[in-house]
Predict the 3D structure of the following.
Amino acid sequence: MHTKLLSTLILMALIAAGCSQKAEENAAKTVPVKIYTVKAESIAEYVRATGSVTADEDVILYSKTTERVEKINIRPGQAVAKDQVLVEQRNELLKKGLEIAEAALRTAEVQSKLAATDFERMTKLYAEKAISPQQFEQARTAKETADQGLQQARSMYEQAKEQYDYSLVKAPFDGVVAAIHVEKNQTVAAGQPVVQVVSVSRMKAKVHLTGSDIQQVKIGQRVRIQFPTIPGKGYLGRVDKINTAIDQMSKALEVEIGFISGDRRITSGMFGEFLIETQLNPNRLVIPETALISQTEIRVNRETGLQNTVKRFFLYVIQNYTAKMKEVKTGIANDGQIEITDGLAVGDSVVIVGQNIVKDGQPVNVIE
């Protein structure tokens, strides 16, 4: 009796040990993986280019008169508005002449208005035969003389104002002062550089494309712009111009990219990377490119006998905590993401870490 009981206990212990060992073996075969849940989103294809940016409007303002600088109203880096006076040259006599011309213009306007009123009255009287033809002609002549005087006074005023404005260097557009080339009390000759003004809102860049990239770029395409000196910040632009001829020396085609930005950190000469969007596929299945496992096959054309290299792509999806290998078809790729055109569905769980060690049908442990 004791011998039979002892045999039964030993058998149960062996069975328990075997089950435990099998459980440990199964646990050891379970591979930890990370997954990505497939969803629909947009993916774009780009042509990459590099280049330096310049202000779309970048002008140097020159002195229009030879005179001493009296006032400098700006400093380098200062934002200015269109028609703002930046630098003033000595202009007392010009200002006095403008005031005289303005007074003469006002007098001529009054005289012209009085002559016109008198002529209108004399015209009515002449129609009623209340005045002689000589009186009517005198009124007409007076009006014509007053009109001529007004035109002459207006011309003199405009000339005086133009001469006065020559002493004022004004901003031609909204922008930023890039450089000041004169100093206060310096006598500046006509034609000498005074101030450089650049636009900070409208910028442009010229990049050069070669090879197949040339055929993919068209006017109006969107451009993503990044600057190494401004990490984490992106800008949007567009292709504005494309040269019609390829440079025979470099075999490159020049493309001009324009963009609007109020970021004062972007200055002329800054180096940037430009991603020209050549294709946009919205509402597509997109996954991390690292999830794919590629295989290259060599196939022989039975008719020609030629060999063709075929690349196939596979990945693992998780079903009931088990890895299942699936072959997929791919589309465009960009920035570590790739479009899947066939073989996946929204909501599928794709292995993105552990795909190189897991096997088809193997149980997995999904980790965060």
Q: What stands out?
A: The mean pLDDT is 88. Residues 83 and 147 are 32 Å apart (CA to CA).
